[in-house]
Specification:
The protein is an alpha/beta fold. It has 11 helices and 9 strands. The longest helix has 18 residues.
Length: about 270
């Protein structure tokens, strides 16, 4: 019955579904996560439970967030022993602060390619209570996440995530490991939140807005790209060359600019 159900369920484009089926890669991903009994494990998008089963075999239990009602119904039939706690919800709009309050979370999953960046941004506010995150994403997205200044792939995603996490690309996963096979190669990334006490203070809202503006048109100099935030003199006072382009600036430079912009905004008010 389970097999018939699996064969009858078609991956849904609107949910960006590609189901992992190759056991070699399932085991390798699970070993990378290294789940242990007692861990507060949260899986985003368990799908047909390929990785879910492997993680539960190692840790004894997990919690999963699934948006597809049909898959959620299937998952409930597969773990009658209570080893899977299911949250039927959209990971994008989920109140992550309310998930397992008081516990340090270990989050993982095969994120839908069409909404991977929004999910990564949605998880940022919860980083203070996360031990680590392991995600399978499109290789190009992982390359952007870990890119350094001066790289063609360095951009808003790089800056926003690198301020909060130490990130490492672990390995690639070929299209043939999935059903249906995507047209792209996937990669596994490990994200470990930086200790809160090590973070340079910054106005989060201004930082996010300024970084987005800086990379909106990559060819623009900072003088033009963030003119709504700082004057040329203000940029220079923050220790940044106004003629520099966003892709050449380090995360620390954006923090300095955001702090200067927040101070200028406060003065203006």
């Amino acid at each position: 019955m389970t097999q018939q159900w699996l064969e009858g369920h078609r991956a849904r484009k609107r949910f960006g579904q590609n189901f992992l089926h190759d056991h070699h890669w399932i085991e390798r991903i699970a070993r990378s996560i290294d789940p242990k009994p007692g861990d507060a494990l949260i899986e985003i998008g368990p799908g047909q439970a390929a990785l879910t089963r492997e993680v539960i075999a190692l840790a004894g239990k997990e919690t999963a967030v699934e948006i597809d009602r049909d898959l959620a119904a299937f998952l409930r039939t597969q773990f009658p022993d209570g080893s899977l706690e299911l949250i039927e919800a959209d990971a994008l709009t989920l109140d992550w602060a309310g998930i397992k309050p008081g516990e340090r979370l270990r989050i993982f999953g095969n994120l839908p390619y069409n909404i991977s960046s929004p999910i990564l941004f949605a998880l940022l506010p919860a980083a203070g209570r996360v031990i680590d995150q392991h995600f399978m994403l499109q290789r190009e997205v992982v390359d952007r996440m870990i890119a350094g200044p001066g790289s063609k792939t360095y951009g808003r995603l790089s800056v926003m995530l690198q301020r909060r996490y130490v990130m490492h690309k672990l390995f690639d996963v070929p299209p043939g490991a999935f059903t249906p096979a995507p047209k792209v190669t996937s990669s596994i990334v490990r994200m470990v939140p930086r200790p809160v006490e090590s973070l340079a203070p910054v106005n989060e809202e201004v930082f996010g807005e300024l970084v987005a503006a800086a990379f909106q048109q990559r060819r623009k100099t900072m003088r033009n790209a963030i003119s709504a935030f700082l004057t040329e003199e203000g940029i220079r006072a923050a220790g940044i060359d106004p003629t520099a382009r966003a892709e050449t600036l380090a995360v620390e430079d954006f923090i300095a600019l955001a702090n200067a912009a927040a101070a200028a905004r406060a003065t203006a008010e």
